[in-house]
Write a structure and sequence with these properties.
Elements: H1 5-14, H2 27-34, E1 39-41, E2 44-50, E3 57-58, E4 61-62, H3 65-68, E5 70-77, E6 82-91, H4 92-104, E7 108-113, E8 119-120, E9 123-132, H5 134-145, H6 166-175, E10 180-182, E11 185-190, E12 196-198, E13 201-203, E14 211-219, E15 222-231, H7 233-244, E16 249-254, E17 260-261, E18 265-274, H8 275-286
Antiparallel strand pairs: 1-2, 2-5, 3-4, 3-8, 5-6, 6-9, 7-9, 10-11, 11-14, 12-13, 12-17, 14-15, 15-18, 16-18
Length: 292
């Protein structure tokens, strides 16, 4: 069984320094198993599976894959003792075939829920974690994804980066930090100050515990924004109020993990309006969060 409770106990007893060292992973074998390459992000090796096959709209706004339709897997550890965790974007009829396949390979399902509201077609998000031999858990993940219509063929080489439109600078200046412009989406991953620990292991932003904020153009001087605020209990309602004061809707509030410390709540949102008003609303929310 790929998921082994004794492995978790050994990591607690003997420590976990190598548990997070992506340089000890044979990423070529992971790439071979998944049929695509990923990117190093600190001590993580992260592989993306964007749902480019889906055409999702929130009311009248067409959603780019990078805004809210990005399945992903973050690998850490070494070849024999790896961990993978991530988030899968699935249609309703894909959810249970995928989770049955994951469970048959020993993966833990840590959450199933919505991130958006009023979207067509309706999409759900499955959060998961698996442990074991790195190539084997990569193969098992790919087999689970094959139960959906997630594109699994090797993606075409990315297009040369386009010149960021003017709204990018406006948002970066408002938030006071640089984002990543790719595929028509401006993305931010803003880490929390305190360490987040799951099963004795300190997680990084690449494993889904950073404030994840995305923007795309939605018309002349207009942007759509979604993502999730990663919050402690005392931050939840101040952030809700700050967003509401700027016309940004909260679309979900829930957990993504099982045994994290401190306990975290993931608040998803939807903002649509002028670049200035939406970015100021996101900044107001971030001002209520203990971020770096």
């Amino acid at each position: 069984m790929l998921l082994c409770r004794s492995f978790l106990m050994l990591s607690i007893i003997f420590g976990t320094p190598s548990f997070l060292a992506a340089q000890n992973l044979d990423t070529a074998k992971i790439d071979e198993a998944l049929g695509r390459s990923g990117q190093k992000s600190g001590d993580m090796y992260r592989v993306a599976f964007p749902r480019t096959d889906l055409h999702v709209r929130v009311n009248e706004t067409d959603i780019k894959p990078g805004l809210a339709l990005g399945s992903w897997a973050a690998f850490s550890g070494d070849n024999a003792r790896a961990v993978v965790m991530g988030d899968l974007v699935l249609l309703e009829n894909e959810v249970n075939p995928v989770i049955r396949k994951l469970r048959s390979s020993g993966f833990e399902i840590t959450a199933i829920h919505n991130h958006l509201i009023n979207e067509t077609p309706h999409v759900l998000y499955v959060h998961y974690m698996g442990h074991g031999d790195a190539p084997q858990i990569a193969q098992a993940l790919r087999a689970a994804l094959a139960e959906s219509k997630t594109p699994l063929e090797k993606p075409a080489p990315p297009a040369p980066p386009s010149e960021p439109p003017s709204f990018v600078k406006t948002i970066e200046d408002t938030l006071g930090t640089k984002g990543r412009w790719s595929g028509g989406v401006l993305g931010f991953g803003i880490p929390r100050v305190e360490p987040i620990v799951e099963n004795g292991t300190t997680l990084t932003g690449a494993q889904g515990v950073a404030e994840s904020i995305n923007f795309q153009e939605a018309g002349p001087d207009k942007v759509a924004s979604t993502g999730d605020f990663v919050l402690t209990a005392d931050e939840v309602n101040p952030v809700i109020s700050a967003l509401a004061e700027h016309g940004i809707e909260v679309t979900a509030l829930h957990s993504h993990l099982l045994t994290e410390h401190p306990r975290l709540f993931f608040m998803h949102f939807w903002g649509l309006g002028s670049t200035a008003s939406v970015s100021q609303g996101i900044k107001a929310g971030l001002d209520k969060v203990h971020v770096k």
